[in-house]
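Researcher: Please predict.
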Amino acid sequence: MRATRFGHPVSVIFFDLDYFKRVNDSHGHQAGSEVLHEIGRLLLKTLRSTDVPVRYGGDEFVILMPETSKDQAVAAARRIGGRSRTSRSSPTSPMARSGFTASLGVAAFPDDARDPEALIRRADEAMYRVKADSRGGGLRGGDACVPERAGTLTTAVSSEP
C-alpha cells in the first residue's frame, strides 16, 4: 500500500442505504435503479476529484479517500449527509418520493487498520454498528458503546428533513 510506504493517511467511508428493499418493493426496480443513480451523482458533486466512490454491491458504496485523515473523512461523511438532506432532486424523483436514510462507517489508515482489507472491514463494521444501534442516529468511535475495532465513526444521513 502506497500510504504505508510514504506514511500518508487514507480513509474509507462505507455506506449503505437503509431499507432500500422497500424502495424496490414500493416503487419498482426501475425506481430503485434511479435512486442509485441519484446517489452516485450526489457523491460526485460532494466529494473531491481525488476521492473514489464505487458501488460495492447492491445498495452499498465505498469511498476511498487518499491523503485524508480520520477527521477529514468524518467531515466528508457529514457533508454527504447534509447534501442528501438538501438535495434538489425533483419532487417526483424516486429518491424524493421514498425518502431514504443511509448509514455510514468511517475507518482510517493508520489509526484503524494497516492493510486495505482491514480498512474496508473496519469501515463496514462501523456502518453495521449504526444499523444495529441507531439507524438515523450517530455514534463516534470513541464512545463507550462502540468497540474499538468497529472503526472511527458511525453515523446516519437522511434525505428526510
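Model: The two ends are 40 Å apart (CA to CA).
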